[in-house]
Amino acid sequence: MTPTEMSEDFVAKLVKPNLVKVPKAGELVAADLRRRIITGELSAGDPLPNEAVLMENFGVSRPTLREAFRILESESIITVLRGAHGGARVLALDDMVAARYTGFLLQYNGTSLADVYRARTELEMAALAMLVNGKFRAAAADRIEQMVQDGVALVGDAEGYAEHEVTMHQTLIELADNRTLGVLARMLLKIIGSHNVVHIATHATEREGSEARAAQRAWTKLVKLLRDGDIPATQAFWRRHLEGVAKYMIGNTEATVVDLLS
Description:
By secondary structure, this protein is mainly alpha-helical. It has twelve helices and two strands.
């Protein structure tokens, strides 16, 4: 029995059943490798040491090591290539993986699309407060103004403009320079972007361009309000705009995230 196995057996005897879950050896190995990746000790694209080296370092068997690999693969942290030139390699962390699991959780809880849109509104309200009251306000106004100009060429392209505007909403939040808000926004905007695709596909094309032009006017006014630096006026206008968009996109239906993504 290895020292690790002895210590686990000792802890297991001290802990009352069903009160504390003692991690399996594979979970402990996965946790150690995950920590090395998240802290940057192992970078995206780096190969992990070969199995023989890892088995010796951790004092575990090949099945235990491969269980750890399966855990990390399921989290999209590593990829394992089979064959003579295979092996485990670190993947770049992708926030879309988190967005996908967030979508699953929202589906499981029967979350309404209206709830998602309200959450998006509150995130943008928080971002605007940071922007208007912070040192990045002028730069944010310049960046959004440039994106409004870029959107002119997309006004007649419903899908193209919808994608562009999702990027604008994401950029607005990221300009507040708060990483947590940015990650949360990407999760919600992934769902809203999927809803845009469904909405465009199920609505008549005679109104194409009118929605984009209305959005362009709203973004243009937001730029002016940002330059003025009036927090209440900026937030009040943008809240009205986002609530109007949500009402138009969702109406009075009780549609849920599962209806959209299933």
